[in-house]
């Protein structure tokens, strides 16, 4: 299996092409698993271990509402995130992983495809507190309810050549969305932004795939 290793850490919106599909799938069939490196981004004024840990194959990320962002002087929200070093501008790329969202996490982006022409990101998966934890695309389309305190399998396929993103949760295609324009893209996961007092996710089995069929 291709490996991964940690390296040093260094909005107008297009409407989605709505496809409310609920079909069991194997999102990685026909794709090539690809090795990657990553960095961890946490509040600049705290030791990394105060907001991130890794043990027994699990990455744990947590933030509080009064946390700083990742470098002194930045104006974005608090974050504890894995930043995959897979920068790309074209081709087909896929993120895969299992996430456990701790109850109480709210107003928090748990996974993102960074890079867009009209906004900073192509897509964000965001947890809201309603209905036992609701995962939405930003604050818009509902992708899953009752999402707290269980492992959820996540696949996000990005066809950068055609500007489309396909989101699967537990091997079910939840929607197809426009990617908000060509840019340099990469994958991130963890916790970013917060509307409650504390947000936490745990991620495992994070994989990077390339060059396969999308929307199957």
What attributes characterize this protein structure?
single chain; 216 residues; mainly beta; Jelly Rolls; eight-stranded antiparallel beta sheet; globular; Alginate_lyase_2; hydrolase activity, hydrolyzing O-glycosyl compounds; Alginate lyase 2 domain-containing protein; ConA-like_dom_sf
Strands, total number = 16
Order of helices and strands: EEEEEEEEEEEEEEEE
Give the helix/strand class: mainly beta
Please give the domain count.
1
Nearest-integer average pLDDT: 91
What's the architecture in CATH terms? Sandwich
SS element count, helices: 0
Oligomer: single chain
* Order of adjacent strands in the largest pleated sheet: 1-3-6-15-8-9-10-11
Supply the CATH class.
Mainly Beta
Low-confidence region ranges: 8-22
Question: What is the strand content?
Answer: over 45%
What is the CATH fold-level name?
A: Jelly Rolls
Distance between the termini: 23 Å
Rg measurement, Å: 16 Å
**Shape estimate:** globular
Tell me the helix content: under 10%
Q: What profile does the largest beta sheet have?
A: 8 strands, mixed
Provide a quick synopsis of the model.
With 216 residues, the chain is an all-beta fold. The chain is built from no helices and 16 strands.
Polypeptide structure, described:
With 216 residues, the chain is mainly beta. The chain has one domain: Jelly Rolls. The protein has no helices and 16 strands. The protein has strands spanning 4-6, 32-34, 36-41, 52-55, 58-64, 79-84, 92-101, 108-114, 121-128, 134-137, 142-144, 151-159, 164-169, 172-178, 186-192, 198-210. The protein is globular and about 40 Å long.
């Amino acid at each position: 299996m291709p490996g991964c290793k940690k390296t040093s850490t260094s909005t107008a919106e297009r409407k989605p092409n709505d496809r409310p599909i609920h079909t069991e799938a194997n999102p990685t069939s026909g794709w090539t698993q690809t090795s990657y490196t990553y960095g961890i981004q946490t509040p600049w004024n705290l030791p990394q271990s105060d907001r991130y840990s890794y043990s027994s194959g699990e990455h744990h990320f947590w933030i509080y509402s009064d946390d700083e962002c990742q470098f002194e002087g930045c104006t974005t929200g608090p974050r504890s995130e894995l930043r995959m070093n897979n920068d790309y501008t074209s081709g087909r790329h896929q993120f895969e992983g299992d996430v456990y969202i701790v109850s109480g996490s709210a107003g928090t982006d748990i996974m993102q495809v960074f890079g867009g022409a009209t906004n900073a990101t192509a897509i964000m998966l965001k947890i809201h507190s309603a209905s036992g934890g609701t995962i939405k695309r930003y604050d818009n389309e509902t992708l899953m309810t009752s999402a707290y305190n269980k492992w959820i399998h996540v696949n996000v396929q990005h066809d950068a050549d055609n500007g489309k993103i396909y989101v699967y949760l537990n091997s079910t295609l939840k929607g197809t969305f426009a990617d908000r324009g060509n840019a340099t893209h990469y994958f991130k996961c963890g916790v970013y932004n917060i509307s409650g007092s504390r947000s936490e996710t745990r991620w495992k089995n994070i994989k990077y795939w390339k060059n396969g069929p999308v929307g199957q």
